[in-house]
Amino acid sequence: MKKNDNQSYDEFIKGIWRDNPVFVQVLGMCPMLAVTNSAINALAMGMATFFVLVGSSFLVSSLRNWIPKQVRISCFIIIIATFVTVADYTLLALVPKVHKELGAFIPLIVANCMILGRQEAFASRYPTRLAVMDAMGMALGFLLALFSLGAIREILGDGALFGVNLFGPNFEPWIIMILPPGGFLTLGVILLFFNWFKLKKDEFLEQVAAAERSGS
Amino acid sequence: MSQDKSPDSNEVSSARLVLTLALAGLISGVAIIGIYEFTLPTITMNKARELREAVFKVVPGVTQMQQLVYRDGELIASTETGKDEQPMYAGYDEDGIFVGYAIPAAGPGFQDTIGLLYGFEPDRRLVTGMEILESRETPGLGDKIYKDADFVANFKQLLIDPEIVVVKKGKKTGPNVVDAITGATISSKAVVRIINETHAEWSQRLPPAGSEPPLVETAPAGTGEGP
Predict the structure, then answer these.
(1) Nearest-CB residue to A71 (from B5, B17, B138)
(2) A78–B25: do the CB atoms touch at under 8 Å?
């Protein structure tokens, strides 16, 4: 039982940092670059994706013994598309303003390779509990990545966060940050940081290993 | 797939494959219809409320409204719109006296179609307000056509004759002149062009000032609190 707990915790936490779908696996770039021009859009997109990924992973994992592998991809897509449609109509009914801003990108969650990737790589091979933990971790990692990009771009490009002005009237907004190039620039800088961090960590681990070898 | 439980799982009959997909499609279809039916009333209500709020905003002083359509050469109150008929709205004050029209208009903007609603007072020939309903203009630049209060304020007492003219910001001279947004000249011009074109189209259809269609008391589009 203890081991089981540890494993599901590990499946959960890996998506947030070690295997972050955006910063480490570099998946789901389309929504990542397209809808992160403000923090609220990024958050709404992240939550819609969270719902779709967790729902689909749960169903795919529960049904994994019934789905013949020849038609598995079609089945995954049908399941994902259904959840996306549900998310689309729910957002339209509850928060029409956000839905208007996200526009075509909600239906396009279907094409987010991260979601299909999780079904094929994880949910279709592991028990439901682990699949849901994995999906929640990955979706949360995706949400955090989207949010950090959206927040950075909104702060620099609009001088505001969640529409609340931060710097007063003398701030000259850096408009390129909320235009498409800003997405590439911000993402590039963050990826740079992640790779640098990984490099430093590997170096550090090597040093520790070397020290241990010479010490013992 | 290394996870296959039985070695003959490669030989699943076609019937089973078809059945699985058909079943998946069926369940998915039912789920989608369910959520559609479930959210439709809220979505329709939101849209109606948005429209009402927009009408009340572009024609100040309005408390009631009804939908008008141009049919057989005259404007009549109708909640139904036939093919090729564009609806527009008439606003009335508390006593049911006509105040102004709210006319939907659309046309190409910088990136995509801009849809808007503008208020028009026929007796004073004034545009009384403008509200963008739909736009995909560049965030931070073109979207100022609805986010920049100064630009929107241009359209609150704007003479429509002979036509609305756009000038660079700060060069506003006459009652029919709009200050463009710095950095979003194309979007500003698009808004004005859409209003000018729609006005030209409607001006022949509108009845002479003073003989606007009266408020039909039972018109469900305008009376009452909720839509």
Answers:
(1) B17
(2) yes
Across the interface, of A82, A93, A178, the residue whose CB is closest to B139 is A178
Short-list B86, B85, B92, CA closest to B55 = B92
Q: Which residues of B touch A78 (CB under 8 A)?
A: 21, 24-25, 28
Closest to B219 (Cα-Cα) out of B87, B64, B113, B95: B64
pLDDT at A86: 93
pLDDT of residue B218: 53
How does residue A82 score in pLDDT terms, banded at 50, 70 and 90?
very high
Q: Which of A70, A79, A125 sits opposite B17 (nearest CB)?
A: A70
Among B30, B31, B26, B6, smallest CA distance to A68 is for B6
Domain residues for the domain of B114 are 47-203
Q: Answer whether residue B176 is part of any domain.
A: yes
Whether B222 is covered by a domain: the verdict is no
How many domains does chain B fold into? 1
- Residue B90 in any domain: the answer is yes
pLDDT at A139 (0 to 100)? 92
**A–B interface: beta-carbon pairs under 8 A:** 75
Sign of the torsion formed by the C-alpha atoms of B50, B53, B59 and B63: positive
Nearest to B67, CA basis, from B76, B54, B56 = B76
The C-alpha of A216 sits at a distance from chain B's nearest C-alpha, in angstroms, of: 41
Rounded to 5 degrees, what angle do the CA atoms B91, B96, B97 make? Answer: 75
Is residue B28 situated within a structural domain? no
Q: In this structure, are residues A55 and A139 in contact, taking their beta carbons and an 8 Å threshold?
A: no
What pLDDT is attached to residue B194?
92
Residue A4 pLDDT: 67
Of the candidates A12, A16, A25, A22, the residue with the CA atom closest to the CA atom of residue A150: A22
Supply the pLDDT for residue B5.
Answer: 45
Q: What is the mean pLDDT of each run of 10 residues along chain B (227 residues)?
A: 46 86 93 93 88 88 84 76 78 86 89 88 87 80 84 86 81 81 87 90 80 68 43
